Amino acid sequence: MLSLRQARTTAAAAAALPVETLTLEAAIGRTLARDVAAAFEIPHASTSAMDGWAVRGPGPWRIVPTSPEHPGEPLPALGPGEAVAVLTGSVIPGDVDSVLRTEHAHSAADLPADSPTADDRSGQGLLSAQPDTPDTQPGRNIRPAGVEAQLGDRLLSAGSIITPVRAALLAVAGTDEVDVVRRAGVALVLTGSEVITSGRPDPGQVRDVFGVALPDMLREAGAEVIAQERIHDDAQQMDEALAAASSASRPADLIIITGGTAHSRADHLRPALHRAGAATLVDSVEMRPGHPVVLARLPRGTYVLGLPGNPLAGFAALAAVGHPLLAALHGEAQAEAAEMSAAIAGEDFTGPRSGERLVPARQTFSGILAAGHDRAHMMRGIAEADVFAVVPAGGVGAGERVDVLPVPGGGAVRGVNARRRTP
């Protein structure tokens, strides 16, 4: 049996999947396979930060009669003591000293006839700055070329998730395509002779929860569900399901089995893995719920993740072991720490006698609060929870630091893993 940290470290040791090249739009939600550097300076030209007047030398300035229709329109070169109207984003010639905001300037036409700056008769008109404006300082309201990035600067590192704003950064840098890690293809095998998919269960029956929730949870974690099968608690069906998923025309990178992970006569996963020649990587974790989670690798390289059949236990095991495994398969940096963060306990959390306890909890301004209904078979607590509070032996007191994992498909995941795009 492994500790939670050991299990996550083991799962995070999986090698990343192959690389493919995608457009920026298609790559959102994927993991970068290689660093991306700036192909040119950002911005690639000096531009105006304001609508107003580009000026050269001390004022007042003679107005050059031109009126740009759009920021990309080239501006004329300025002589000493000249000004030209500019728009935000206009390319600034190298001889310009600063940009005077529209609201900080006035032209001769705006002044009384006896004003000392209103006697220009050249036909060009004069422009003056309001007293005490800082806009006449050299470089004022000009965005210099390369102020954000120089040629060759690393913009994003391999292992970074391409979020929408990161895709926008790469677009600014002129990137059209990126190399990303392929999505993990997941085959779901849902077990349980007592499980029904619709209607009211009779005594001895239960409704399916994993078939409803897992596909979307896995998509949010960046994976692609490529097959889904339901089997009874039967040894032969388990053998056949493992063989089919790992040898299909598109073999699964990961097979997720729900249920069958314990040691009763109705639990067939461990014997089936042994018969298939699998290497067991994680055989139970010292945590509650989710203790009987199993992680193995088949001879052909396909991973098998066995989730306990109780709903809360299964989802806790997915967060604890499944997420770092998927992060590693997707090439994410620091896969061992995938999704784990720290928070402040808003109340006392009782710890287990040993190992760790995963408690469905809500994030509030007062700190992390238990959501209740936290037995392995229950759903109400996790349905209201954002995170699992990872409570060590000895517990955590109010105001103390506590590690948290996002609940798969919960509110916290919507904020973090919604970076993923469904296939």
TrEMBL record:
Keywords: Magnesium, Metal-binding, Molybdenum, Molybdenum cofactor biosynthesis, Transferase. Pathway: Cofactor biosynthesis; molybdopterin biosynthesis. It is an enzyme of class 2 (transferase). Residues 187-328 form the MoaB/Mog domain. Its EC number is 2.10.1.1. Catalyzes the insertion of molybdate into adenylated molybdopterin with the concomitant release of AMP. This is Molybdopterin molybdenumtransferase. It comes from Candidatus Nesterenkonia stercoripullorum. The lineage of its organism: Bacteria, Bacillati, Actinomycetota, Actinomycetes, Micrococcales.
